[in-house]
Amino acid sequence: MAERRTTPVELLWDLAFVFAITQTSTFLVHHLSWTGFYHAMLLLALVWWAWSAFVWAANAQEEDSVSMQLALVSALLLIFIAGLAMPGAFGDEATLFAVTYTGVRLIHLGLYVDASRRGNARWEAIAGFAITVAIGMTLLVVGSFLDGAARAVLWTAAVAIDYAGPAWLTRERLRGLQRVAVAHFAERYGLFVIICLGESIVAIGLAAEGKEVCAALIAVVGFGLLATVGLWRTYFGDAAVDAEASLRREDGDAVLAAADGYSYLHLPLVAGIVVFAVGVRIAVEAQGEPLTDAARLALCGGVALYLVAHAAFRLRMVGEVNAPELLTAAALLALYAIGGGIAAWLLVGIVAALVLALCVVEALQPHRQPEGKIPP
């Protein structure tokens, strides 16, 4: 597969997911409890897997593929409708969400079959995980007709089976799935991180809209933006360059490394950004008041989850343990534990200071090019 970059139709496709990510964070804002968090993460896992699946299928297509353009535009319409249904996905809109989402996944399989017909993907691997997709989507639709815990149980099983397809059940077949167009692949996942960071910025703006401009508002907004910039710098530093370089090596496990590092480990990374966006949004509304335990956990815990996931991504792709990231994550959890009486604006300021300090530490560390094979 020749190298290529992201096409305009893929950027158009991403816009539907901007809306879906916004819907996920809004859902969590209005259901800020452990049950609400679990439901929001289920929805995010589904949205993420649909987007990631299309990255792989599009990666096996040519840039000017008419099939890819038709598939992405068709799926865009369906995922947007699914996004409209997300606030009621655990209520009256469950079936609409499940059916439209299933349509997106079936279009993805059709695009992969087309890539196989063109000789760009291996049919045996596609047929293997197509079975788990079919089982997962059946459970999703059936679960939409149930209520309460029964729906959550079936949807959890649907996500688990769908994710288990390439992760475990058909992992050996996955080795020969396709040749990865590395520049396109790494760029696509980086763009999704940008989408999620953009959601954090939008959340800050929406929370500040209509409020009286005062010192506390300026402080919490400024610190929230600085924290977002720090997360951006953490991702788009040396680790991103080294991870892309590792995929360029001629190694039989490149597809597996890409699946582990990008498709799987980016999910908790993205989840961390989404949860942080919820926390900072509530902090902007609170300004000088202390945050509730749930909001404080979203703010501090979201960034901590992001950093732990990014450290895991670095370990998988580069074979390097990033102690500063793990220590910063631990400091953020400690801040959550002791920060019950701290004003929201100051708490966001401390979070921003910790993330920016991490960026400085990483910038001062000498950059070592990764050596050897991709970790198994």
Could you outline the blueprint of secondary structure elements for this entry?
Elements: H1 8-30, H2 34-59, H3 66-85, H4 94-117, H5 123-143, H6 148-169, H7 171-174, H8 182-208, H9 215-235, H10 238-248, H11 254-264, H12 266-286, H13 293-318, H14 323-338, H15 344-364
Helix pairs in contact: 1-2, 1-3, 1-8, 1-12, 2-4, 2-6, 2-8, 3-4, 4-5, 5-6, 8-9, 8-10, 8-12, 9-12, 9-15, 11-13, 12-13, 13-14, 14-15
In short:
This protein is mainly alpha-helical and 376 residues long. It has helices spanning 8-30, 34-59, 66-85, 94-117, 123-143, 148-169, 171-174, 182-208, 215-235, 238-248, 254-264, 266-286, 293-318, 323-338, 344-364.
Task: Explain what the structure shows.
The protein has 376 residues and is mainly alpha-helical. It is built from 15 helices and no strands. It has helices at 8-30, 34-59, 66-85, 94-117, 123-143, 148-169, 171-174, 182-208, 215-235, 238-248, 254-264, 266-286, 293-318, 323-338, 344-364. Helix 8 (182-208) packs antiparallel against helix 9 and helix 8 (182-208) runs antiparallel to helix 10 (238-248). The two termini are 23 Å apart. Mean pLDDT is 88; it is low at 372-376.
List keywords for this structure.
mainly alpha, 15 helices
Into which percent range does the helicity of residues fall? over 70%
Shape: globular
Beta-strand portion reads: under 5%
Number of separate strands: 0
Low-confidence stretches: 372-376
Query: Roughly what is the average pLDDT, rounded to an integer?
Result: 88
Reading the helices and strands in chain order gives HHHHHHHHHHHHHHH
What summary fits the major beta sheet? none
Distance between the termini: 23 Å
Count of individual helical segments: 15
Rg is: 21 Å
Q: Which structural class should the secondary elements be placed in?
A: mainly alpha
| Oligomeric nature of the chains | single chain
